[in-house]
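Tokens for Flagellar L-ring protein. Go.
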Amino acid sequence: MTRLRLLLPLLLALPACERLSEIGRAPALAPVTSPTAAPGYQPVSMPMPTPQAPTHGGNSLWRPGSRTFLRDQRAASVGDLITVLVSIQDTAQLQNTTEREREGTDTLGLPRLLGLESSLTRLLPNTIDPSALVQTNGAQTSSGVGTMRRTETVTLRLAATVTQTLPNGNLVVAGRQQVRVNHELRDLTVTGVIRPQDIASDNTVKHDRLAEARIAYGGRGTLSDVQAPRYGQQILDTILPF
């Protein structure tokens, strides 16, 4: 327990030391590496159709999968480059209105109870009416209005690399782009599975044609550091029950 108390401040200070080392300098760019060498990289495994023997057309100059008689310049093999067009325009609007009103009146009495109703005057000091012993009334009114509006727009172009060719011909692509402006670093990553038929003639593909797409756009730097809550506040927000 004593060791844990000593290590906890050190662990909390590590992120702060990293930020202190970048004071006066812009965030460092990540080195250019192979996407398959990333720590969390895993080959994609998806359901595949039954393999079929290729068919060859006799005396034909047209090659299956090619759009021209010349060599196809589109990405088709591991290591080829392809441009992914990211154009996300997400708009959501939700409005909910609820109103509720309830009124009730109850009256309870015992005008005849085996002749024992006369005994009530002896039990209770004041004169009572046996036919109206208990009378209640209540009214409830509640209303609520909720509105949510969200608008997100991301438009980017990113060159990705073909990292894997699946048995059915689909391509697994992964790309990363970093842009640093002054002391703010923007990081964009895209991964997914595409069909060769969805690749345009200019070797581009839209993001909505990517299966199992993973698109992340974020950043770090001076502005992001100011907007993010402190580590201590994040810990308290996680462990405090109230």
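Strands lie at 81-108, 134-165, 171-181, 184-194, 204-206, 211-221.
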